[in-house]
């Protein structure tokens, strides 16, 4: 991930899997290693994938609709929002709708870029 000042970091997890459709595409993530960005994803562990039209988060409202317009494994609503709205760095982190990774910056301030890379373990 990268912020608007050009700083980069990553978060590495040794275990990441997504359940079946019947299980709501439940996230299983563990064994955080590091990478400088902090562990913002473990809070979302064991959550089902939520979208605007399929609310499966732990909040009474719909996190996907309220905070991002994008799907993710929200947990009331959370500390990672890689599918948030792209705000071009024009937010102060107080509106919680941008692309953020809370434990890197200690705020919900929007990031310039973020990506998730997954590989099969043999």
Written account of the structure:
With 122 residues, the chain is mostly beta strands. It has 2 helices and 4 strands. The chain has helices at 63-67, 102-105; strands at 13-18, 27-32, 80-81, 100-101. The strands form 2 sheets. It has a two-stranded antiparallel ribbon with strand order 1-2. The chain has a two-stranded antiparallel sheet with strand order 3-4. The longest helix is centred in the middle third of the chain and has 5 residues, at 63-67. The two termini are 27 Å apart. The model has no long low-confidence stretch (mean pLDDT 93). It comes from Cyprinus carpio carpio. One of its GO terms (cellular component) is extracellular space.
Tally of DSSP helical segments = 2
Instruction: Please count the beta strands (DSSP E, at least 2 residues each).
Output: 4
Question: In this structure, how is the largest beta sheet organized?
Answer: 2 strands, antiparallel
Strand arrangement within the widest β-sheet reads: 1-2
Q: What is the share of helical residues? A: under 10%
Overall radius of gyration: 14 Å
Structural class: mainly beta
Q: How widely separated are the two ends?
A: 27 Å
Large-scale geometry: globular
> H/E series, N to C?
EEHEEH
Low-confidence stretches: none
How much beta, percentage-wise?
A: 5-15%
- Mean of residue pLDDT? 93
Short description:
The chain is mainly beta and 122 residues long.
Offer a few descriptive terms.
single chain, 122 residues, mainly beta, two-stranded antiparallel ribbon, 2 helices, 4 strands, 13% strand, globular, Fibrinogen_a/b/g_C_1, Fibrinogen_C-term_domain, Fibrinogen C-terminal domain-containing protein, Fibrinogen_a/b/g_C_dom
């Amino acid at each position: 991930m990268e912020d608007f000042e050009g700083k980069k970091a990553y978060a590495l997890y040794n275990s990441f899997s997504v359940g079946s459709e019947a299980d709501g595409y439940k996230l299983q993530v563990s064994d955080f290693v590091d990478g400088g960005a902090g562990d913002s994803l473990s809070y979302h562990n064991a959550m089902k994938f939520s979208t605007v039209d399929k609310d499966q988060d732990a909040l009474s409202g719909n996190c996907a609709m309220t905070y991002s317009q994008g799907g993710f494994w929200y947990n009331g609503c959370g500390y990672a929002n890689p599918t948030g709205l792209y705000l071009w760095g024009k937010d102060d982190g107080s509106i919680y709708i941008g692309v953020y990774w809370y434990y890197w910056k200690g705020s919900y301030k929007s990031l310039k870029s973020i990506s998730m890379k997954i590989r099969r373990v043999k």
